[in-house]
Amino acid sequence: MRGLGTYILRGRLQAIAVTSVLTMLSLLLPFLAYILSGAPPSLVTLRQGPIAGLQVIIGSLVVIAVFAYLINMNPQISTVFALGIWIPLWLCANILRRTESQGRLVLAAGACGAGYILVMYLLVEDVPQWWKTWLDAWMTQALPADQGEQYREVLTSVAPLMNAMMAAGLVISLISTLLIARWWQALLCSPGGFRKEFHALRLPRGLLIVVFVGLVMMVMGKSNPGSPALDILIVLVFLYLFQGIAMIHRTIAARGLSQAWLVAMYALLFVVPQAILFLACLGMVDSWLVKTAVTGRNDNS
């Protein structure tokens, strides 16, 4: 990673080449698309500034569009990467670079997720029905007819939450990719800097009050599934996942506990998805108990 990072930061052409190659690779590994195609331009933006990051993004867009044209793929795939991955990462990377606060990074990613939700409700008249239609078409193509029917009932219950889940996925991908890029930057320029900054990750108490009000409204039946208010509330809850993880890292380091606890935590996240809610609750508790503003300046940049 150190050698690849040094090569990327050596010049714009090198960064564009690496970004383009990894983006093409991500077409074969779509579940890693955010990290593979997003980490290199994020690293350039964090280290060398917004103009440099934008130059890498534009250059990579041109390369991907030409590549897609040559293999008879829709060249508009470059637009998907630009709007869905590179532009949100570039915006959040600039906020992290300016503030040197991973708490503010998490807030910025949450704002991107909320923006996606609001745009969907502005462009689509009935968002849950749109997702139901899309999922129904996907099932028809992906599953045999005799198996598809048994999933129809599940489809009906999942559709109202799909928009929130897509927004939460966007937020998690944004934050995870930028944390990797920040760790990469620290590895090259400030060993140990990432750990200090990550341990300081905290969200403001004011946001917690908003979440509590939203949860009370949901219990009272004021926020129904498929509404923008509930979708944004779900995204806000997911933000606290990262404060919960940071709290676990901070506690283990402070008490000198074995790194096996961290391995167990991440294994639990992959094996038991419900652990996400548990860690988010830990993050909320940490936000309430620790009276600290969202700061954390160090020398990573």
Entry summary:
It is built from 14 helices and no strands. It is mainly α and 301 residues long.
Proportion in helices: over 70%
Structural class: mainly alpha
**SSE order in H/E notation?**
HHHHHHHHHHHHHH
* Number of separate strands: 0
Separate helix tally: 14
What is the oligomer described by this structure?
single chain
Roughly what fraction of the amino acids lie in strands? under 5%
Biggest sheet descriptor: none
Question: In words, what does this structure look like?
Answer:
- The protein has 301 residues and is mainly α.
- Helix content is 79%, strand content 0%.
- The protein has helices spanning 2-8, 12-26, 33-48, 50-70, 77-99, 102-123, 127-142, 145-148, 152-189, 193-199, 205-219, 228-255, 260-271, 275-289.
- The longest helix is centred in the middle third of the chain and has 38 residues, at 152-189.
Short key terms for the protein model shown above:
301 residues, mainly alpha, 14 helices, 79% helix, globular, disordered C terminus
Question: How are the SSEs ordered, and which strands pair?
Answer:
Blueprint: H1 2-8, H2 12-26, H3 33-48, H4 50-70, H5 77-99, H6 102-123, H7 127-142, H8 145-148, H9 152-189, H10 193-199, H11 205-219, H12 228-255, H13 260-271, H14 275-289
